[in-house]
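User: Hey, my collaborator sent me this sequence without any context and asked if I could get a structure. I don't really work with proteins. Can you help?
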Amino acid sequence: MDVKVSNLYDEQKLPLLHNMEIAEPQRNLFHRAINQTCKSTAHLANLLPTGTVLSFQLLSPIFTNQGKCDHVTQLMTLSLLSLCGASCFLLCFTDSFKDNKGNICYGFATFKGLWIIDGSATLPHELDAKYQLRFIDFMHAIMSILVFSAIAMFDHNVVNCFFPSPSDEMREILTALPVGIGVFCSMLFVAFPTHRHGIGFPLSTN
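Assistant: No problem. I've predicted the 3D structure and written it out in structure-token form, which is a compact way to encode the shape of the chain:
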């Protein structure tokens, strides 16, 4: 009797478990894909100046009044986004090197070489060609602005500030556009990596 009851219980239990195993991946597949994409896009912050990203994350709730904006806070938030975007753009043209004493010296890349900011060291002329300004630098600067824009659109305070009641179409755009920017810039950063170690980026090992 116990064996029959056990077999009957297993027969009733197996289809339920089987259906759950099929339904659970189907239900969570979309969420896992979205979460993974968002994580990949968030990792792009590593390609931006650290100080700029931290400043934005710190000041965003304050400038946006936690997403409850009026005309003044909208202007302040727009100014914050503009300054952070300009910082991401300009800092892509900075680079660093180690002098004879092992100190890290920073400078701006020019068409003639690296212009040292504080003038405490002089870059050897034979290394000028290595630090010259190139087209790839402008490409990375533009991509940095795009990546920062994607990160800003993932910030709920910024989105609520400018789009407090978005339509369904706008909500889809705000969801899909940052992901698209992240995927596009990820491919470009991988295909055309930068070798500069500027302000806010990993230090030069040269």
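In plain terms: The longest helix spans residues 2-43. You can pass these tokens on to your collaborator as they are.
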